[in-house]
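User: Predict the full complex structure for these chains.
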Amino acid sequence: MSSVKLDRRQFLKMLGVGGAGTALAGCDLPTTITLEEGKEEVVSYLLPEEYVIPGVGVYFASTCTQCNAGCGIHGRVREGRVLKIEGNPDSPVNTGKTCMMGQAGVQTHFNPDRITAPMMRKSGRLQTVTWDEATAELNKHVGAQSNLNGGRFAWVTGSVSGHQSVLINELMAQLGSTNHYAHEVVNASVWSAVCQDMLGDAMPRLRIDKAGTILSLGADFLGTWISPVHFAREYAKFRSPAKRGVLVQVETKMTLTGGNADLWVPARAGTEGILALGIANFMVDRGWNKVEIPAAVRAELAEYKIEKVAELTGVAGSKIQRIASLLSERAPGLVLAGAPVESSEQGYASVSAAMLLNIIIGAVGTTIEPATRFSEKALQAKAGDTKSLLAFAKGLQEKRFDVVFISGANPVYTAPDALKLVDGFESVPFKVVFSQFPDETTQKADLVLPMYSAMEDWATHVPAYQTDGAVLSVQQPLMEPLYKDTKGFGDVVIALLKQRSKNYEQFPDYYAYLQTAMMNLPEAVTGPKPVKKEFWNGLLQKGLMVTKGDRATLSAKLSVPVFAHAAHHEGGHDDFMLVPSARMGMFDGRHANVPWIQEAPDQITKVVWDSWAELHPEAAAKLGVANGDLIRIASEHGSIETQVFIHKGIRPDVIGVPLGQGHEEYGRYAKGRGANPLKILNPVLEQKTGELAMYATKVKVSKTRKTVKLVKMGGSDTQAGRQFVLTVSADKLRRTEGEG
Amino acid sequence: MTPPIQDKMIDENLKWSRINEDVLRSMENPRRAYWITFAVCLAMFAVAIAAEIYQYRTGMGVAGLSNPHMWDMYIATFVFWIGMSHAGTLLSAILHIIHAQWRKPIYRFAEAMTTFSLMTAGFFPMIHLGRVWNFYWVLPYVSDRGIWPNFRSPLVWDAFAISTYLSASALFLFIGLIPDMAIARDHTRGWKRKLYGVLSLGWRGDDRQWRNFRKTYMIMACFLIPLAISVHSIVSSDFAMSLMPGWHVTTFPPYFVAGALYSGCAAIMTLFIALRYFFRFEEYMTLNIMEKTCKLTFAIAMVWSYLNLIEFAATWYGHNPYDKELLIDKATGPYAGLFWLMIFCGVIAPFGLCFEKLRRNMPAMLVMSVVLQLGMYVERWMIVAPTLSMAHNPHQWQTLWGPIVEWSIVFGSFGWFGLLFLVFVKLFPSVSMYEVKELTFHLKHEIEEEAHAAKHAQGEAHGHHGTQGGGGVPVMAPAAPRSGKEGS
Amino acid sequence: MSFKNVLENFSNFRKDAEHGGHHTYEHRWGMAVDLNLCIGCNACSTACYAENNLPVVGKERFAKNQAIHWMRIERYWDPKDEMYPEQGASFLPMMCQQCGAATCEPVCPVAATYHTPDGLNAQVYNRCIGSRYCNNNCPFRVRYFNFYSYYESAWPEPLQMQLNPDLSVRDKGVMEKCTFCVQRIRAGKDKAKMEDRKVLDGDVQTACQQVCPTGAIVFGDTLLPDSKVSQLWKAHQVKRGPFTQKTPKDDADIRGYRIFDELNVDPSVMYLERVRETEV
Amino acid sequence: MRFKIGCMNISSARNQSTQRAGSGLAFWRGWVALMAFAAFVTVSFSARAELPVPAHIKPPVGTHQGEKVPQPIEFPHNIHVKINKINCMYCHTYARRSNVAGIPPTSKCYGCHKVIATDKPRIVKLMEYWEKGESPRWKKVHDVPDFVHFSHQKHIKRFVFDADFPVEDVQQVCGLCHGELREMTVAEKKKPLNMGFCQRCHKANGGPGDCWKCHK
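Assistant: Here is the predicted structure of the four-chain assembly.
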């Protein structure tokens, strides 16, 4: 109807300029005077979409990228601004719910510290340049004409999936490079490794909702482990009067999940596996095993007598028996193993022990179900780990890279100093960082490409942990880009690919590519497809596609892990085991630049806006420190300083420092706040998988003279006799309900 | 036989002209001490203004308030000043009605104090508002929006009570001043003469005027007393009407009134001594009067202490867990120091007033009066703060100490009060001349009557004091016949 | 309230105060929070920040207890914990309880906080003069005061674009508190009105309820007999109105209670006891 | 297109009407073209008749003299409303389905004016905007403070649709708060639109008296 070329996202244009004003400015005037006319501006749409009505919120479906669980979300858009994130009820991952990180997505998007234009290192300093310059520079090094030897090209990403993964692999292939490092600090790689080896499936489905008893060895499944929101949904069923399951949490420092446990068991760091074997042995003795146990296995298990285990783990024998009996009485049981266990020195062994217990109590098949994988292999998730970081660091030290791409990762922040990653990284001739924020890695780059935020860009995500059916979740723009000089990740990669391969010339941008790619998905994958256009629109409306996928099969391999040495740690008066725990909110530190997250208190300690070192009252007494005293925590590879927080939810022989703070860059909210425990980690490796054993660093703690005010929410830590949170004994209820 | 001079309120042989001279002198050529005090007060006030401007621009946060501590020193100080304001009424109205003669030389400045401390107190509820510029929304005025204040709120009652009390006591002060204004008029020149001329409302001191004057004065007095009581009861209901432990106390109204009179008397003692020293008022503000004041103060102190204990007892036997918890925390928790300071200053210290030696030792009394006032201030703060620090929800427990902004405004209020008072003493007679004259006259009259009774000789007395009237002072014709009744 | 009303209804005011607000409610919004499901993950409080334009006050002011979080998760330890808190922590989502006989209402000098026909404690921001009496008289201490003006400091460009236009940004000197997401209630009611129908259960969701991963928060109209929330109140034998001593609930899964019920403030939020395996 | 909508029912409920309005364009065009000339002649000395007040409404009391606000294009309401008798809600179509009445999308202006009065300077200006693919940045004239929640759709429903008031006379209802726009070129504020004004009307017509109905 017109000669005007319309931007495809025209309807996402912002209308009102002011947004919500300071409402109270107006009302101080006497009531006879009203607002002056002609102050605010109002703009109409050029061409209205009939469903976009000024003053009425419209919901667009998309996908949350705050962590890798891949929850579906709805963004509330009004006058072209995305205002709020809600969960997408259609997504089987989060069924209409989100976590606090998901909620904070809008502040990640509207963050005042976004990079708004490309930057290039000129005469040692990063300077703002135009995209033409940036692209020219990029092509000079990685373009078709460049004399780049693919083998000397490396790409560090976070967990990737969907079509980004496809494009990355494609470009790597075109360049002839195999150095793709997917790096995540918070991961479950050892868990998957064990699952792969013992069950034949890397990411089996865990039916928390079906379980009667959950024995969680440090798995913070309500906070940070694999797919927290989904697990929380199932946890609700697990707690429902119908089930009334029991949660036993074994860990050295209380996590959010530990805070919700019926029984919180602080076993010695690194001995959780032994505990599992102890329980297994006890159950087998009593004949509580649900599967047939070969004599050999029995024999091996027999070593783990209650007394010995109790002695090693520091958990009372009676307690071990109780847990065992719970697992059999309140079947079906489920045993999980999370970060503290996975990334300890003998993580693999410990997790295998847990898995063995799973098999013995017959969890496999009941509470552990075969996963549903997304049928299109290329789109499946490539989960990040720490092994890759080690490999990358090694490569850097051996000077194996001329060009390095970094996207969706911040290795300069996450890499322990011991890896010497920073120096190596600086010595790389050409470093390109795709980033939204001026983080540590960005500051070291030669070329910084400012990316769209997750709410401006297109993408597809395939969760690593699939639930009911295999999900492919679409991430679509919720509003037009805030800054004209930012670009989509896909767009840039496509541009690079075009130079090397004809196939991509048809695509003006990533959107076009994505649309075509999705429409060309075989019906085998998507199920019966309607007319293409409608398929696409339907997909965008729903925000995701739930396919039946292909079902894995579970095998159960009984084998008792061998513990090289009973790795446990005797706390001296000033040396501790460092627990660098991740938490819902800060996560691995990627959300430290979000004001809401900074102001949201830590779930257990309620400390805000800073790091802290958790100490047990005993330990604190030994050190002679009180809340707010600054202490120095030193490992062989450096030291950090932070304030003491004393509470009982931690073993006296460990010291807990949360991840997330201690950024040297990363914007006004994160910069120079708190300490980063990752920096001082010893380069201890998990023996089997070669992952970085994050929970195996011994540190010396010393007082400093300084004291600060510990800023936390809440006055009294007890209810002081108020009837606030009442607890009723499950037994009592069960008795009264006559459930036996 | 004539009683020994030191037992008398005042020397009855004081020439009336002398009285005029002395008092009027106090209103002239300020000395250095005066200017220094003036400068100090001005400085304090200036600081407060600065602080208030800063607070106005930045927000109440700078006053160190927090979620549990929505109120703090501002309210405490408010209550304190309201308390001060009760002394004047006590002296001038209550004692007037019960014919306590000794009040006459000292009630004037006490009344001034009443008015000025009210003028000071009035500021605090405003200062502590988050949006000062809308303070008038508390008053019921006809607005185009057709909305009214919430008549259930004690704060609204406050607004009414205070404004009424302020206007009433100011009026009372003025009425009491009229005859003296006339004297001043007759003894001054220039602009002052004009001023006093206006203020004396053409007082000629004739019979009719005196009659009306006394009626009015008496009526005002009667009107003022219930008002004074109600004002502080209402102030107390700011707390008593709430649900909070330590506030929701039935004995608060009398408790507050007692406290008010208490601090008021202490304040009178301070000013008494100051004026006596600066203005050489030894003959007027005699030790005997001081004695009486001290005794009165002691009596009130005991009443207050009693009510205080009553409150504790009520809490204890009432067995409301929150109240009990709070009481114990007051005595042992972070505020324990202040609590015991309050108990010492308010309950123990006044026993010093039992010793005549002390009562007649001005420096000692000065210290004493300050101590008592300190005690009363702390008491007010101990009512406001601890309750907020430690109310029902333990999650919101927090102790708080006011920051510099708050302090400076509180100090500034003393500066402001000082200014008003200093201006007053130089513009108006701080001792009521005509009543002192009455006093001396009656005193003399009694003594003579006793003498004559001895001699059975009549009629001299009249002739005698007929010649007394000097310096254009009206003879108090109607006073004489009633003198027999009036004798204290 | 016009002066006429005051004169006419003064007795009503007093009755209201005793019997808990209006006697003719259009709706009576209520909530049920199952502490057995609450995991204390902070999702609700963050959602509240997002929905209700809550300012981020920063570390220094947080240290002074000047933070504003309408929905806060209180965390308590059991004083009986010896070496370790073996029963875990206790989490309590605490927001304005929208009391039926709210203590904050009668003390506000300008009637900026009052009881709506929906059974909510309204807080009219631009009427508030900041006497802060209401919070002093609130046993739950769930009212928050704007000690500073946050518009510039809390929402630097372009963060202010996220602000929800459906409710105002409060300026300094104003009291604020949880409103049960009144803007959502308003939207829901308008929608129903435009469609000439009654407001149904589920039409209105509060932000915290919508986000809660475990579905611990249930919100609705307690006057609708079939609404989820009134079902829960019924099932757990919690009634509106003045405090009545409960018979020890020994006979079934009845876990309902209202915090500070004994103060007779008639809260609109019912909590459900958390169930733990205390024998282990 | 791609949406998953809270406000579906509103839009869908009202869609048909918009469609009709759209397809009615042809008719409007001819009609408007016919009237255009007469318009320019008569508008200057057209007698000023008071806008009648609908019987079922007790009008709000209060007057206000707002200044003339300079707009990017001096839009002549008088021509559109008085001469061409275009219904308010033809352009301000959101009024009946949203809180805000909304400024008509530029495409709507274009719809008529690509054939009508294309030579007039204002229209030329408009076309420039259209070609640039952007909308004029109008200045708000009738604005309520940010802390006030005002819903056009509810008022229209109450006073027009529910009252079976003839929609073609809707300007009489709009006029109660917006003044006689048929007499103005660009809109001027003729009513105070303050709390007293609203509140008096609410009293008179039995609108809600609850603070939270309007204050947010």
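Chain A has four domains: 1-110+454-481+521-548, 119-184+384-451+486-505, 189-373, 575-707.
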